[in-house]
Amino acid sequence: MPMSADRNVNLLAELARRPGNSECNECGSKKPEWASYNIGVFLCTRCAGIHRGLGAHISKVKHLKLDRWEDSQVEHMKEVGNVAAKLKYEQRVPPCYRRPTESDPQVLLEQWIRAKYERLEFTNPENQVYTSGYMQGFLMKRGKDDNKYHPRRFVLQEKDGTLRYFVKEKKEPKAILNVIDLNVAFAPAKLDCANSMQLSFVKDGGTRHIFVLHNDPEEIVKWYTAIRCVKLHRYQVAYPSASESEVRPIDRQISQGNNLTKLWAHFDELCEY
Ligand SMILES: [Zn+2]
User: Fold this and answer.
1) CA of 16 to the centre of ligand 1 (A)
2) Backbone angles phi, psi at 254, to 5 degrees
């Protein structure tokens, strides 16, 4: 191995141990072994795979030890790193957006990475369609009796805090759900489908579930996020004196804080991966 290559491997290993770089930039898992050398971030194997899927025009991925590095590329990793890249690409992450962890399903992690670098949602907030307070569209809903999926139109409204769905157009909604009572989770293992979501609520003393799918992963994550945004808004209306940090969802760590935090903890508890 030439001297400079040897030096670069050692330099990268040293950079990867620095605070911020010692965890994957996207999911927080320990000891990342990969990097995106144009963006300047350290990544775990799984997130490196997602970065590669974005295409080299967005992210250029290398292994810290197994690939050959140019001096200038190592220099760029030194200049940027995870802390500075977060300041740049995560400037405006809405408080209702779920920041993925390593135990989250692929669909959430992939859409987080695409939102950040492909759609630039957190640097250009006008790209955040799910924060508008209204969303409508078709989702495939599992029938209660036949277990088959049927297209149903769903409408989410922040102004009255409801999610409703329609079996037939121009008729009354089949159900009107209060978002504040709704738990939303991804259910890929349960439904054997990556782009699936489980909506749960309590009715007549029992827990009911609604299972929905969409063939576009971006769409299902938009619905998931939009419901969280409406729910956060309803909490803020219900508890006007609470600060944003009190009502915002706690994703990375569930603190033993106030009741609102516990509500959010419960909100994510139903996730089954
Ligand atoms: Zn990762």
Assistant:
1) 14
2) -95, 110
Give residue-wise pLDDT tens across range 109-160. 999 999 999 999 999 989 888 888 899 999 999 998 888 899 999 999 999 9
Q: Mean pLDDT check: name the lowest of 32-41, 62-71, 145-154, 261-270.
A: 261-270
Task: Report the top-level CATH class of 128-269.
Answer: mainly beta
- Cα separation of 39 and 80, whole Å? 8
Does the model's pTM come out above 0.90? no
Closest C-alpha to 156, from 191, 182, 127, 192 = 182
Span(s) in the chain for CATH 1.10.220.150: 3-117
What's the CA-to-centroid distance between 228 and ligand 1, angstroms? 23
* Centre of ligand 1 from the C-alpha of residue 26, in Å: 5
From the options 1.20.120.80, 1.10.220.150, 1.10.1740.10, 1.20.1270.90, give the CATH code of 3-117. Answer: 1.10.220.150
Looking at the chain, which residues constitute the CATH 2.30.29.30 domain(s)?
A: 128-269
CA 118 to chain centre: 14
Q: Is 101 helix (H, G, I), strand (E, B) or coil?
A: coil
